[in-house]
Write a structure and sequence with these properties.
By secondary structure, this protein is of the alpha+beta class. The protein has 5 helices and 14 strands. The longest helix has 18 residues, at about 200-215.
Length: about 270
């Protein structure tokens, strides 16, 4: 049973594909729903797992919001009207008996969608639960994300090393020096794995993608970037670990910032 409706619109994908996107801003629920604030990973958290020569691999979660189901209490309030389209809905389970199918074709939207106030919180919270599964047992020697202890490296310490992060997870090798452990950072639908070699970073990315699929979240392999020391932007920043560690801002973000400053200047004038 559908009690209220929301809108939807077409989105072009390529040259011969059009997909439907639900617009949750039109259903009126956003004004009646409270959603808590939440923290997001930042460049500073990413730099905890980066030193000179660290390799990074990027993955993307496809259709991020659509991976997560709506609460049943919300589904009946987020219906869509397919009446304007000539569609055969006779084969659907649990048809709406209170309306005539020939006149009204109302279906309940069952997944988180764009414009719904709670969608970012639901998606980010769920993906962080997925991260715990992906990381696995940190004591398992066969786990690419295995680590032994947390190393503190603060400026006032006698053994402070400015080339290392202030705080980091470290993996001890039986016949070699201690290295930063492979790690995973997720910014909404952008996943980035780190490793102290190209192979380790790739293995971390492989484990992330396969476990995401196993959990029911779509890994979009067409958007994957291979392991390298100068990958593309993540959370609006660029990191390069060639001959040191360098954090840069993308041209698009810098241009956007300058335009905002110019706009504020004109408003003050």
């Amino acid at each position: 049973m559908v009690l209220s409706l929301t809108s939807y619109f077409p989105v072009k994908k390529g040259e011969d594909d059009i997909r439907m996107a639900c617009d949750g801003t039109k259903c009126g629920l956003n004004n009646s729903v409270w959603v808590p604030s939440f923290m997001m990973p930042s460049l500073a958290s990413h730099l905890r797992a980066v030193v000179e020569g660290t390799h990074m691999c990027d993955l993307d979660i496809g259709e991020c919001f659509l991976n997560f189901m709506l609460n049943p209490k919300l589904r009946v309030l987020c219906g869509i009207d397919l009446g304007p389209y000539d569609l055969d809905l006779s084969g659907l389970d649990e048809p709406n008996e209170e309306v005539e199918v020939e006149k009204k074709k109302w279906l309940a939207w069952n997944r988180a969608a764009m414009g719904m106030k709670w969608s970012p919180y639901q998606a980010v919270k769920s993906i962080h639960f997925a991260e715990e599964v992906i990381r696995g047992d940190r004591h398992d020697p066969d786990n690419v994300f295995q680590w032994d202890f947390v190393r503190c490296n603060f400026p006032e310490q006698e053994d402070y090393d400015p080339s290392l992060p202030w705080i980091s997870k470290v993996r001890e090798l039986p016949d070699g020096p201690a290295l930063l452990a492979a790690d995973l950072f997720t910014y909404v639908d952008d996943c980035r794995t780190t490793g102290q070699s190209s192979q380790e970073s790739w293995l971390a990315g492989r484990a992330t993608g396969s476990k995401l699929n196993w959990l029911g979240c779509q890994d979009a392999p067409r958007k994957r970037r291979d392991s390298r020391i100068d990958p593309g932007a993540w959370a609006g920043s660029l990191i390069c670990t060639k001959d040191g560690v360098f954090a840069l801002v993308s041209d698009e973000k810098w241009d956007k910032f300058k335009s905002q400053v110019e706009e504020l200047g004109s408003m003050l004038a």
